[in-house]
Design goal:
Blueprint: H1 8-13, H2 16-26, H3 37-61, H4 68-84, H5 93-108, H6 116-124, H7 130-158, H8 164-178, H9 181-204, H10 207-217, H11 220-223, H12 238-247, E1 253-254, E2 257-258, H13 270-279, H14 281-305, E3 311-312, E4 318-319, H15 323-348, H16 351-362, H17 383-405, H18 409-414, H19 417-433, H20 438-452, H21 458-487, H22 491-517, H23 539-553, H24 560-582, H25 591-599, H26 602-621, H27 628-633, H28 637-661
Antiparallel strand pairs: 1-2, 3-4
Length: 663
């Protein structure tokens, strides 16, 4: 069924009251169940599970993955199967939309954990207590919800802005429930089978799962004398090096540096194959180029020059040169420069965002102002809730940031006006492009607060994290509200759904964060040194940390080669972004992605590139619409990628839990 929408002429000339009345008469489905007990419970459970996968992938790649499509397909399949078995009535389209609202709100909550909060712990060496982490996350997320809904009336009801990602979700939902159910079930099967396959592989390369199977279930250590669990090494080249150690064969090196020190390993990470498929070939190639330049070309030169050295650790023992040391000692600086300059130039090249933001703040617009009574007052979230809730929660957020993290209260309060500015810019960017420039905008807050207080890293990290995450959360929620508007849902119930999702994300992500990244040592103590590892690179946190270190310490202590690399990176980022602007996005490289490839493990960037190349090839091979190949590899590629990610991520999380619980 074709979704109804206003014409461009109606959008330009009608008042908001007229548009609201048209929507109420033609789109609104007031009698259809939406926020029911089962949709709330399903969204809560799916939100918790999918937010865990978002945390897992974010810690590996620094990329926030959307969980909305996955939740839509899973909820559709679950209740279609239950209905077919006579165990439950089928989900309505609005129940499914409400479920995905809850799930996506839960997924958004993971982002500060892999960026600003992680950077704060890395810089200060302080492990944030779990309850403080949870309170801070819930407060800033609630601010995002209350900021989003007044803006919804302007951006969605009045201006009818496209929100491409949100509109795509609405179209998918409409096609599932009013089109061919077989197409929806095919996507569900694709997601399910790839998730099972990814989970099986991840279990085979996981010591925890194999220990559970072989020692606890099969008890091979008793009747077969097995002393250690057998599992496939995820780093496949380990088998080569084991053979070399016995036979005394050749160890590959670059400039005399062992490739293992450079992180150049062969790993089959199926989650990264899925991430690569979603990011596309251009972005994945840029990441791979950054990794190649840094770890194949520059790092061996800097090690031989003595700018990357074996340092002495806190316990007095030497710390071997490794990928992490290469990044922390030298590569981080030019990577951060590349990402920050590229993001700022890309943002500055979109003046329409600033013009639209200015119109949003000043109220300048072409269409007539809203006149007459508010016909949606009975279903919209009351504006009074936001007018009262936003100031109260902002003051609470500033106080919490001061009390928990030592940020001067004046600085925390001074950052609050930036919330409106950043949110308006981010919301306009999301509405027009499905892209939120939070990375670039957060650096504005970081440098502003850092210029006032250079001595306290929390003074720039936490206010920037608060303003950036509120802006991103509000903008992403606006995109999530869009399909509800298209399908005739109750806005007030979507707001409640978002709050449920925030609680689901907090209750899942915070305990999981401590389990995965802050495990206790033999004495029961937790240390920030366990956050960044070969498995979890935390690239977003390293970017935030790099800016904080530059603010606090300046660049005087860096090697001359690092300063030269930063200057070259800044010039290269400028040239790349100008080329992208001149070619209207056709230039195949991205400076932000090149910088990201520097801080990611090379094995991950290679797996992402392979995934992107594979799905690009399959799309090229199966161009004909209606063919079986096109249905699976083009129309279903997002479901396949989501299956790879969720299957591997959930099994990897389970492995970490088993390593704690199984002796």
């Amino acid at each position: 069924m074709a979704l109804q929408q206003l014409t461009d002429e109606q959008v330009r000339t009608w008042s908001r009251a007229q548009k609201d009345q048209w929507w109420l008469d033609n789109v609104y489905r007031g009698d259809m169940p939406q926020l029911t007990l089962r949709s709330a419970l399903t969204g809560f459970l799916l939100g918790g599970i999918l937010s865990a996968t978002a945390l897992y992938i974010g810690a590996k790649t620094g990329i926030g993955i959307g969980v909305g499509l996955t939740s839509v397909i899973l909820a559709f399949a679950i209740y279609r199967l239950l209905a077919g078995a006579g165990l439950a009535a089928d989900f309505t389209i609005l129940e499914n939309n409400c479920t995905q609202s809850i799930a996506t709100a839960a997924g958004y909550l993971a982002m500060p954990l892999i960026s600003s909060l992680a950077a704060y712990m890395l810089v200060t060496g302080i492990v944030i207590p779990w309850w403080q982490m949870m309170v801070w996350l819930v407060v800033i997320s609630l601010i995002g919800v209350l900021v989003a809904f007044p803006m919804k009336r302007r951006f969605i009801n009045d201006d009818q802005l496209p929100f491409p990602e949100g509109r795509a979700s609405g179209v998918v939902l409409d096609s599932l429930y009013t089109g061919s159910a077989a197409a929806g079930m095919l996507k569900a099967r694709l997601l399910g089978w790839t998730a099972v396959g990814a989970a099986v592989w991840q279990a085979l390369v996981s010591d925890g799962w194999m220990k559970l199977l072989q020692f606890k279930l099969l008890r091979l250590h008793q009747w077969a004398g097995l002393k250690e669990p057998w599992y496939i090494h995820e780093r496949l080249d380990t088998y080569y090096y084991q053979a070399v150690a016995k036979a005394g064969g050749w160890i590959p090196s670059i400039g005399g540096v062992d490739v293992r020190q450079l992180g150049l390993r062969l790993t089959l990470d199926v989650a990264m194959l899925g991430v690569g498929g979603l990011m596309g070939l251009a972005v994945a190639t840029s990441c791979a180029l950054g990794a190649f330049l840094n770890f194949v070309v520059l790092a061996p030169l800097m090690i031989n020059a003595g700018d990357i050295v074996q340092r002495i650790g806190p316990n007095g023992a030497p710390v071997p040169i490794s990928r992490i040391e290469i990044v922390n000692q030298w590569a981080l600086w030019w990577a951060v420069t590349m990402m920050v300059v590229g993001a700022l130039v890309s943002l500055a090249a979109k003046p329409e965002l600033f013009r639209s933001a200015f119109r949003s703040v000043t109220g300048r617009r072409a269409a007539p102002a809203a006149t007459g009574p508010d016909v949606l007052a009975h279903i919209e979230l009351p504006l009074m809730v936001s007018w009262v809730g936003v100031p109260v929660l902002c003051l609470l957020g500033a106080w919490v940031t001061h009390a928990f993290f030592g940020v001067p209260l004046g600085l925390a309060l001074a950052s609050l006006p930036l919330i409106l500015v950043l949110t308006v810019i981010c919301a306009n960017a999301m509405a027009l492009t499905s892209w939120t420039p939070t990375g670039a905008l957060s650096k504005i807050t970081q440098f502003t607060m850092g210029a006032i207080d250079r001595g306290n890293p929390a003074s720039n990290l936490l206010p920037a994290g608060m303003t950036a995450e509120i802006a991103a959360n509000a903008s992403n929620l606006l995109s999530d509200i869009k399909p509800g508007y298209m399908l005739g849902g109750k806005p007030r119930q979507q707001a409640v759904g978002h709050v449920i999702g925030i609680l689901a994300g907090a209750l899942t992500c915070v305990p999981l964060y401590f389990l995965l990244f802050l495990p206790p040592d033999a004495q029961g103590l937790r240390s920030t040194t366990t956050i960044v590892t070969d498995q979890f690179a935390f690239p977003a946190a390293l970017q935030w940390k790099g800016v904080a270190d530059i603010i606090a310490k300046g660049v005087q202590g860096l090697p001359a080669s690092a300063l030269v690399a930063m200057a070259v990176a800044a010039f290269a980022a400028l040239a790349i972004e100008l080329a992208r602007i001149a070619t209207k996005g056709r230039f195949p490289l991205s400076s932000v992605s090149i910088g990201l490839g520097v801080v990611l493990p090379p094995e991950s960037t290679f797996a992402m590139w392979v995934g992107a190349l594979f799905f690009s090839f399959m799309a090229w091979r199966h161009k004909a619409p209606g063919s079986r190949g096109h249905t699976v590899w083009v129309e279903g590629f997002e479901a396949i990628c989501a299956g790879l990610i969720s299957g591997a991520a959930l099994t990897g999380i389970g492995n970490a839990i088993l390593n704690v619980l199984v002796d």
